[in-house]
Amino acid sequence: MLNKKMEDAINKQLNAELYSSYLYLSMAAFFESKDLSGFANWMQVQAQEELSHAMKFYNYLVQRGARVTLPQIDEPPAEWESQVAVFEHVFEHEQMVTGLINDLVDLAVSLGDHATNNFLQWYVAEQVEEEESSSGVLQKVKLAGDAPSGLFMLDSELGQRVFNPPAPAE
Ligand code: OFO
Q1: How far apart are the CA of 147 and the centre of ligand 1, in A?
Q2: What is the CATH number of the domain that holds 154?
Q3: Structure confidence by residue, pLDDT tens digits, 94-127
Q4: For a substitution probing ligand 1, which of 97, 120, 131 has the most ligand atoms within 8 Å of its CB?
Q5: Is 113 in the pocket of ligand 1 (CB under 6 A)?
């Protein structure tokens, strides 16, 4: 049985993961409007990943006999000044999410909830990857600048990304 504070905090994080998915889908739509379909593909995959992060929290709550709650998801922004501005936003957002995950771990530790602490370690590792991949793309987007050849090549590269769902046991 989960402590009520832990249950509420995980439900809040489930909502934050759904917001992340919504944010990245909005970024995908933004890139579609700029005819950058590879950039849009990268964001669509990112949105799918976030949905899978949300579902892991959903399934954990169910597994622990807790109640899933689904409050409203905030509306994400729809416009950015440039490609660089979008990826700066992604990197900042992921750093913020890392902070949220760390806060959840702190709560689990303070409650002596070893099972939830163990479950959250997947997210701790995932956030290292999330920050690495978003800062990696940010650097490339900065390098490409507004040069059409650089943008074209990067768009092709980002168009290759595919969604790999986490294994059910993960
Ligand atoms: Fe769920 O990791 Fe990004 O936000």
Answers
A1: 30
A2: 1.20.1260.10
A3: 999 999 999 999 999 999 999 999 999 999 999 9
A4: 97
A5: no
pLDDT digits (tens, 9 = 90+) for 131-151: 999 999 999 999 998 889 999
Average of per-residue pLDDT values in the chain: 96
94 C-alpha to ligand 1 centroid (Å): 6
List CB contacts of 161: < 8 A, sequence separation 6 or more: 41, 42, 45
Count structural domains, the chain.
1
17 Cβ below 6 A of ligand 1: yes
Residue 118 and residue 13: Cα distance in Å, rounded? 16
- Cβ burial 105-115 (10 Å sphere, 16+ → b, else e): eebbeeeebee
In a domain, 62, yes or no: yes
Q: What range does the domain containing 133 cover? A: 4-70+79-158
Is 168 within a domain?
Answer: no
